[in-house]
């Protein structure tokens, strides 16, 4: 319940992490992207920064390990802005580069893989059914 305090500027911290990957990264692009990722929640933004600081490889392809969904949004926005070296992560199950945000076994996976993980065979008729919407 105690507030997390970190007097560092989140933009400065993230800019330093990203310039280690892409030396010419524009600070204004990073600042705008960070603000757009978590516009009304400075504490959430701070947690995003701490997670990236703890594991900068999230920005270079290991985003499926992101502890917060906002990190994946941040990566997508940086990639769209053309920041070199930022890699959109692939789904760890099907290896497609699509939107991943559903947690499954400690990783973030795509919609299709989360749906496939819920399929079970009916013990009476043998049909495969998604167990998340059974009545």
Q: Could you explain how this protein is built, in words?
A:
With 135 residues, the protein is mainly alpha-helical. Helix content is 41%, strand content 9%. It contains 5 helices and 4 strands. Strand 3 and strand 4 form a beta hairpin. Helix 1 (10-21) packs across helix 2 (27-37). The longest helix has 13 residues, at 42-54. The chain is elongated, with a radius of gyration of 18 Å. The model has no long low-confidence stretch (mean pLDDT 88).
Largest beta sheet: strand ordering = 1-2
The counted number of beta strands is 4
Q: Major β-sheet, in short?
A: 2 strands, antiparallel
Q: Which structural category fits the helices and strands?
A: mainly alpha
Shape: elongated
The radius of gyration over CA amounts to 18 Å
Number of separate helices: 5
Question: Uncertain runs with pLDDT below 50, 5 residues or more?
Answer: none
Helix content: 40-55%
Descriptors:
4 strands; mainly alpha; 5 helices; elongated; 135 residues; 9% strand; two-stranded antiparallel ribbon; single chain
Summarize this structure briefly:
This protein is mostly helical.
Topology (elements, then pairings):
Layout: H1 10-21, H2 27-37, H3 42-54, H4 69-80, E1 102-104, E2 107-109, H5 111-117, E3 119-121, E4 128-130
Antiparallel strand pairs: 1-2, 3-4
Helix pairs in contact: 1-2, 1-3, 2-4
């Amino acid at each position: 319940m105690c507030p997390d305090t970190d007097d560092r500027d989140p933009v400065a911290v993230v800019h330093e992490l990203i310039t280690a990957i892409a030396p010419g990264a524009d600070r204004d692009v990073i600042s705008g992207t960070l603000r757009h990722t978590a516009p009304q929640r400075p504490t959430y933004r701070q947690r995003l920064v701490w997670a990236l600081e703890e594991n900068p490889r999230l920005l270079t392809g290991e985003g499926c390990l992101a502890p917060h969904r906002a990190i994946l949004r941040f990566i997508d926005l940086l990639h769209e802005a053309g920041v070199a070296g930022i890699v959109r992560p692939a789904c760890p199950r099907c290896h497609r580069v699509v939107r991943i945000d559903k947690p499954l076994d400690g990783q973030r996976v795509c919609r299709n893989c989360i749906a496939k993980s819920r399929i079970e065979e009916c013990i009476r008729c043998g049909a495969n059914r998604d167990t998340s919407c059974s009545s």
